[in-house]
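Workshop exercise sheet. Pairs work together: one partner reads the sequence aloud, the other fills in the structure field after running the prediction. Swap roles for the next sheet.
Pair: D.N. / O.F.
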Amino acid sequence: MIHMLRELESRLTLKRDRVAQWWQESSAQVPPPFLTSVDLRNAGFKIAAVDANLFPAGFNNLCSRFRQEAVRLFQRHLDRHFPTASHILLIPEPHTRNPFYVDNLRVLVDLLEGTGKRVSLGGFVDEPLVLEGNQGLALTLLPIERQGSVLGTQAGLPDLVMLNNDLSGGVREELIGLSQPVLPAADLGWHRRRKSDHFHHLQQVIEELSSILEVDPWFLQPITRVCHQVDFKEGQVDCVVSNVEQTLDEIADAYRRYGIQENPHVYLKANAGTYGMGIMTVTSADEVRAMNRKQRNKMDVIKDRQKVSSILIQEGVPTVDQVGGQTAEPVMYLADGEVFGGFYRIHAGRDRYKSLNAAGMTFMRLCFTDLTRDVHPADCFEDSCRYHLYATVAQAAAMAAAREAQALLMPAA
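Structure field:
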């Protein structure tokens, strides 16, 4: 097996100015999203972004130094794009009774209030709801009312509506045709986004980056294919079977080409999936043919009871990252395409080939010395030598998300 990461880090150092110029030119043409979280997988012989979220949660998993950086970037974005906004209405996911998610909301509210804005929390509920987190700090979710083309709560009429809700189940009628700006745009929810579109744009971005670094793009991205008109419950999986075979063959060819001693595997992912639902790891097409009823049901329906009809077939990138001897993967957080934090997702019950975004996962705050300088919180895991590489791959995914969003929001001809 070759150890490619050091070579990639070396090339990034040598080409730092050219990469920075490419990023500046690309982001000037298509500005990155306000917020993005990017799941990375580091195999030692390659590193790749394997998912990107435009409505990230998990802000409670960021260390204190990163939170300061987040406030600075949030402030810059709001001053540039919403200079007159003083009151933000934050609309969360409907599963607000999850205490870990409430902890996330508490931190996100604190970050937004750190910019000097007033923040109220609103939901489509009948009466005020007190939300309890793990830290004992409660939030109050206020009922949202629509008045003409504006949303408001008993806390007043906001200047900006911010979504921490990925709209997997669709856009509520109350969010359509608002005169208030909505951030991110409701049309960027999973009711419209498709992972296959994101990875189509990521392929183009990685080709540009790898051309600068003079490396095979395969070292920086997963092979992906897509199947539509899939029905796991009814056994309509022929397209999935054939694409699994093709993807495994392509991975095996790359392993042979670079002398990598690994067993190829792929992930089947719901094309509009989120929250780790609708994911399965397979090492042969026969496993797809032989899926039992429990496996078919798991892949058939995801968040908000949405039926899966489109599947992403994605190269499985094994992870070599560990924290405390447990399997881990980094997740990076960006604002306007700039990394401001991250954490390791850890799963003691899963090996390095499986998806770690599953029940039983834990988190370790990630503090890179590039950002923390002399701050060394006891609850942070440091890995400064990887920072530049992780950040660059995450930025590439944010740029792909920007191009994806531009295509989604482009008016129909």
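Discussion prompt: The mean pLDDT is 90. What would you look at next?
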